[in-house]
Amino acid sequence: MKTYSIDDLSITCEKQGADKYIKISYPFRYGKYAEIKSDNYTFQFNLNGEIKTIQGRGEGWLDAAEWLKRNAGNDWTYFAAGGYTGAYDFTGEYYVPCLPYDSNGIFGHNRFQSPEVTHAFEAWHQLINRLNAIDKTATPNKINGFINRILLMGPKTLEQRAHNLHEIIGGRVSVLPPDTRHVEYDVIPLTIADGCLYNCGFCRVKSGNGFKCREKQNILDQILQLKRLYNKDIVNYNSIFLGQHDALFAGPELIEYAAMQSYEILGLKNSVIKGPRLFLFGSVDSIFRADASLFEMLNKLPYDTFINIGLESADPATFEMIQKPLNKKKVTLAFHKMMKINKKYTKVEISANFLYGADLPETHMPSILDLTRNQLDHFHSKGTIYFSPLENIGSIQEVKNKFTEFKTLCRLPVFIYLIQRL
Ligand code: SF4
Q1: What is the Cα–Cα distance from 402 to 408, expressed in whole angstroms?
Q2: CB burial class (10 A; 0-12, 13-18, 19+) of residue 382?
Q3: Phi and psi dihedrals of 351, rounded to 5?
Q4: Least packed by Cβ within 10 Å: which of 9, 183, 318, 359?
């Protein structure tokens, strides 16, 4: 970890963060990266030279424990420190990701409008100009190589690379499963099936297309192209998201094929971050269709698998209002199947989403509590319930009060779904 100084810049080409994801209440970095520190900012870059995080210091920055992080879709997220304001109780994380686009984040302010964040982006652009102007004749080769990589990855190139990512997988990931919070949303997306089964009236993330599986050859082509795109930085990934909205319905053969091909070809075994994880969405009908052999297969994969099911409600009036073709009986059966699977398979966890909205019928919340409290005889640590806020959630204080009351009564872990795209 040798550091080289040029004027006020301290440049370190090889830094090593943690080798597994943990829940921690102070800024923490994972995997291998490189770093440049100026008087006021710390800029971190991935192994391809792409900017990864920016963290300010001193008076020109909002909070010493907060930082900006860029993902492979070229979106920036502001990680706000929430550890001391009870955010962990609401989200399961000590940091609250604040997004620059419309989401359902109910915690924290939109930091992207603050001058401190604007200045941080300006500082990154100024850094690129400075690196461009440095006389590199006397600097070590390693430093020059690193600087050249950064210069190749300017804002336009980063935009183009995000575009390439979306082209490979067939479009932007409109929403990641809530469980991807366990890996700080750092997943490689791979589309194994497009569309979804229900095309519900209320949904803001649907593609509008009917469900259709991809061919194996298409999945293989995506993996090979993803390997080229992520390039040197692939060693910093240990998790795959199988998209789009109902990969579980693709069935065991395609899921196993996609999971194993990506594990082998993307070299997840050699990731510098341990504990590979597989994330996917499912639906009520896909969980009915999935038999024991599918879960046996998942349990034997070299991943811990997280499946997130959209149950939304257990209330007939709510289903009618949100135009989702489900009913109380189906949701109740799916919920109990989920609980059985969570109990039986150590490496598989199924979580469930329910809606939260100020305009939903009064019978909505009690229907969920009936399932998640009255129909369970004790607390279960597996089978997280996520509340997915609709556009109108009413007052934040009321949300917090209702959520806290629900959390106290529910016999499963309960968190708010922070909708995030990729
Ligand atoms: S809620 Fe799920 S099933 Fe319904 S439209 Fe949205 S993605 Fe499709």
Answers
A1: 10
A2: middle
A3: -110, 165
A4: 359
Q: Please report where in the chains the tokens 């579980």 appear, as a residue.
A: 248
240 vs 278: CA distance, rounded Å: 5
Q: Taking residues 95-99, report their average pLDDT.
A: 86
Q: Computed from CA positions of residues 272, 278, 280, 284, in that sequence, does the dihedral angle turn out positive or negative?
A: negative
Two tokens, residue 384: 């997280």
Catalogue all structural domains in the chain, each as residue range(s) with its CATH number. Answer: 3-157 (no CATH), 170-416 (3.20.20.70)
Choice between 48 and 26, residue whose per-residue pLDDT is larger: 48
What is the predicted pLDDT for the residue at 345?
98
Task: Please give the distance, rounded to the nearest whole angstrom, from the Cα atom of residue 193 to the centre of ligand 1.
Answer: 14
Q: Report how far residue 141's alpha carbon sits from residue 131's, in angstroms, rounded to the nearest whole number.
A: 14
| 203 C-alpha to ligand 1 centroid (Å) | 6
Report the alpha-carbon distance of residue 373 to residue 79 in Å, rounded: 33
Please tell me whether the overall predicted TM-score, pTM, comes out greater than 0.85 for this model: yes
